[in-house]
Amino acid sequence: MNPLASWLLPLIVFTPLVGAALLLFLPKGEAGQHKIVALCTSAIVFAISLGLLAFFEPGVAGFQESMTVNAEWIPSLGIRFHMAIDGISLFLILLTTWLMPIVVLSTFTAVEGRTKEFYLAMLVLETAMLGAFVAVDMILFYVFWEVMLIPMYILIGVFGGPRRIYSAIKFFIYTMVGSLLMLLAILFLYFDTSSFDFQTLLDANLSLYEQRWLFWAFVLAFAVKVPLFPFHTWLPDAHVEAPTAGSVILAGVLLKMGSYGLMRFAFPLFPEAAAIYAPVIAFISVVGIVYGAFMAMAQSDVKKLIAYSSVSHMGFVILGLTVLTTSAGTGAVYQMLNHGVSSGALFLLVGIIYERRHTREMADFGGIAKVMPAYAAFFMLVALSSAGLPGTNGFVGEFLILLGSFTSAPAWGRWAAGIGGTGVIFGAVYLLWMYRRVFFGPLTNSKNEKLKDLTLREWVTLVPIAGMILFMGLYPKPFLDRITPSVEAYVGRVLSVATEGKTGGVATANAEVGKALGAGEGEVVLLGPGGRALGAGNELNRVLASARAWQGGGAAPVQAVPPPAAGRMVPAGTVVAPAAGTRVGSPRIVPRQNLDGRGVPERPRPAEPQDAARRLRLQKQQLDILRKRAQEMGLKAPTAQPVQKEETR
């Protein structure tokens, strides 16, 4: 194990605190020094975080052992300093470290007073966000989760707009109430298992009744942060009143804490409850997609329009998490990154025009593309990426989510994809409508005639964003290769445990399925009560997803088949897996056998008569059956073979 890799996560998380401590010793009136220290610190953190890519092993589904830190913190309570990353958290960390120096650079002219306090809050916020993405101990995660509230409250309440106090208090109360519910659930888990470690809690033997309550305690805490409808009302106020830097970080990173928490903790810890309530959360997310889009269309303030668009776009992320397919889950993680880039860039662009005009009302603009062509070009690219134009980052994430939802086993996934897909159309409507009103048409307002186009500093902040939008849209493979194995493990964990009906003991079943699939060919038949063969529905998909996750993300040589009918031959090496709600042991490999129409192995039949004419007639009947089956399956029909007549003695 490389010792440098093991120290990488603590170095990334706590380096911003070093910069914050340095700010404390600088004179209060030296704004230039404050800006340089904050910019250099955030740039150094980003440079260090690139080491994650160097040490990350793309094919590993679980936590990266080489970069895991696990040490005692408070031994008397079993609290550990446990940090780790996988494919889900890797790029969220890189998004945070990449976005922070861009945001700091964008504030050089926007922040005029109290620069020391402003950049101090920014650096502390960066440490809290990074810590939440890498914490594996639940108390450690909760500490970072709560620390995020303080600097964000300061950014909104001290450096915000006219209604900053109201917005900051509303943000604080909403998030704090949800956090307390999560804390109660964490304490319950501790009293049940005597551990706060996430990996230990995965094996907690919880009843379904307990899982239901604990699951919703976690979901409500994370739903406020996403925010999911109807817990979203704090977001538009916070965005409108926050300074530009606060809005960019809020949209770019903080909102992802909610969706990350659902995927990292809520669904894997309580898989049976998650499988039951996934349709409910998916329905809420679809409502949020449509509601956020319609509310965005009704806005006259550009910043508020973008705030409601975040409600709509984050609904896509939650939909991708709830349908529990690999493609939708991968799209959800990718959409988190896309939204962080595109939505953060939109707020950054709004801040640029606000510095020049001190207004965000669309009615105060019109025709400014004539005087700010470069600004208009960047705004168009970012708006189209947010709308999901093919070739930009937004298209890849939304396409994977809708594809995974539509192809999911439950019927409600297709309905959710169909209704949620309208959000893509509505997104194009409100974004292009806003763009036309602000940038096109005549210059009717004389105050807009002397607007200056982008400065060199603004070019430096926007070019990396534009490059990232195009890179993620045209070449997503480096991202998806590292995200997909961890998403497969997430899907496999939830579905396999929900199928087994018991949290403990499922690892053996998964291992047996994985070994069978890795060693042999054939189809998977899931046996239900009485040995009845089940079809290619939820149950079969759960077993397959679990097996693929056990194999480390490799493709399993299996094929989902309908319930076997009369005459259907099951190949040798077929895996028979336990069905939902049963207490069947490990899956077993069965020999080649025939299944009757009920899906139950046939009983031995008595020997056929030796009458030659009867044998010939039976062979013709069997051949007709095989031909019919072959036509239904699109295969070449078998040809008749000559049958020699027996000599009559």
Low-pLDDT segments, ≥5 res: 500-610, 640-649
Number of strands: 8
* Rg (CA only): 29 Å
| Separation of the first and last Cα atoms | 81 Å
In terms of DSSP E residues, the strand content is under 5%
How much is the average pLDDT?
A: 78
Structural class of the secondary elements? mainly alpha
Number of DSSP helical runs: 24
Largest sheet: 4 strands, mixed
Molecular shape: globular
Helix content: 55-70%
Major beta sheet, strand line-up:
4-3-6-7
What would you note in describing this structure?
It is built from 24 helices and eight strands. Strands 4-3-6-7 form a four-stranded mixed sheet, covered by helices on one side. Helix content is about 65%, strand content about 5%. The chain has helices at about 5, 10-25, 30-50, 50-55, 85-105, 115-135, 140-145, 150-160, 165-195, 200, 210-225, 235-240, 245-270, 270-295, 300-320, 325-355, 375-385, 395-405, 410-440, 455-475, 475-500, 505-520, 540-550, 610-635; strands at about 70-75, 80-85, 525, 535, 570, 575, 590, 595. The protein is globular, with a radius of gyration of 29 Å. By secondary structure, it is mostly helical.
Secondary structure: elements and pairs:
Elements: H1 3-6, H2 8-24, H3 31-49, H4 51-55, E1 69-74, E2 79-83, H5 87-106, H6 115-134, H7 138-147, H8 149-159, H9 164-193, H10 198-201, H11 208-225, H12 234-241, H13 244-269, H14 271-297, H15 302-322, H16 326-357, H17 373-387, H18 393-406, H19 411-439, H20 456-474, H21 477-500, H22 506-519, E3 524-527, E4 533-534, H23 538-550, E5 568-570, E6 574-577, E7 588-590, E8 593-595, H24 612-633
Parallel strand pairs: 3-6
Antiparallel strand pairs: 1-2, 3-4, 5-8, 6-7
Helix pairs in contact: 2-3, 2-6, 3-5, 3-6, 5-6, 5-13, 5-16, 5-20, 5-21, 6-7, 6-8, 7-9, 8-9, 9-11, 9-12, 11-13, 11-14, 12-15, 13-14, 13-15, 13-16, 14-15, 14-19, 14-21, 15-16, 15-18, 15-19, 16-17, 16-18, 16-20, 16-21, 17-19, 18-19, 18-20, 21-23, 22-23
